[in-house]
Amino acid sequence: MRRGFLVGLLHCGCSGQMRTLDDRVELEAPVKAVSLDAASGGHVILHGSDETGAIITRAQHYTGQKPITDAQIVSGVLILSAQCAEPQQPCAVDHEVWIPAGVSVDVQTAAGDVTLHRIRGDVAAHTGGGVVTASGLRGDQIVITSIGGPITVDAAIPPRRMALDSSDGDIVTTIPDDAYDIEAHAPTGEVQVSGVTEADQAERQLRVRAEDGNIRISGR
Predict the structure, then answer these.
(1) What is the Cα–Cα distance from 88 to 183, expressed in whole angstroms?
(2) Residue 181, class by beta-carbon neighbours within 10 Å (0-12 exposed, 13-18 middle, 19+ buried)?
(3) How far apart are the first and last CA of the chain?
């Protein structure tokens, strides 16, 4: 396995102040799936591309020791992780990653926005607090949760199962017109469904819950 190369640039070496370390990793081994766990928190951007391997750029923000990060490919799975080296010191690691468009992704960040572009495989994404925006999705399974923030999803093909859940924020999804078994709950807001066929027991399922926000489901 080739780990590629790592280039780092340290901005601001002042003790006690927030530092930012920018780095870039290129991995040439074929990627079949992606697992990203940012326990440190931080924004995540994933781009589906024509690459067979992966290109990762990171911005590591910290005050004490730099965060502990990893980027490697194991049995075809791109594994990315980030955690603070010192629990009592704040840190965050932002990831922007270019991956093969057809792979499945599993993304978790303790806090931060998640943005997905042109991902053609299955998607599982979770943020402990942030905005989730996904466009051009082509997976059969799409599962997205945000503990505190809105969710916007644009699916390019009808998903077999889509589950969207936000504890605090609106949920807006645009999907191709088809027959869907839809369950949508917004205890404190409104639910709007238009442009799709609602059919109980349909093969395609849509489960949407906005604990404190509105839901809009639109077909095209």
Answers:
(1) 42
(2) middle
(3) 44
Give the whole-angstrom CA distance, residue 86 versus residue 56: 24
Model confidence over 144-173: pLDDT tens digits? 999 999 999 999 999 999 999 999 999 999
CA distance 109 to 37: 6
Q: How many residues does the chain have?
A: 220
SS3 158: coil
Pairing of strands 215-219, 171-175: parallel
Task: Please tell me whether residue 94 adopts helix, strand or coil conformation.
Answer: strand
CB 44 within 8 A of CB 36: yes
Beta bridge partners of 82: 38, 69
pLDDT tens for 181-205 read 999 999 999 999 999 999 999 999 9
| Degrees to nearest 5, angle at CA 191 with 187 and 196 | 145
CA-to-CA distance for 214 and 212, rounded, in angstroms?
Answer: 7
Strand blocks (E) in 15-103: 19-27, 33-38, 44-49, 54-62, 68-74, 77-83, 91-100
Which among 142, 135, 99, 139 has a CA at the least distance from the CA of 118? 135
From 83, 121, 82, 124, select the one nearest 99 (Cα to Cα).
Answer: 121
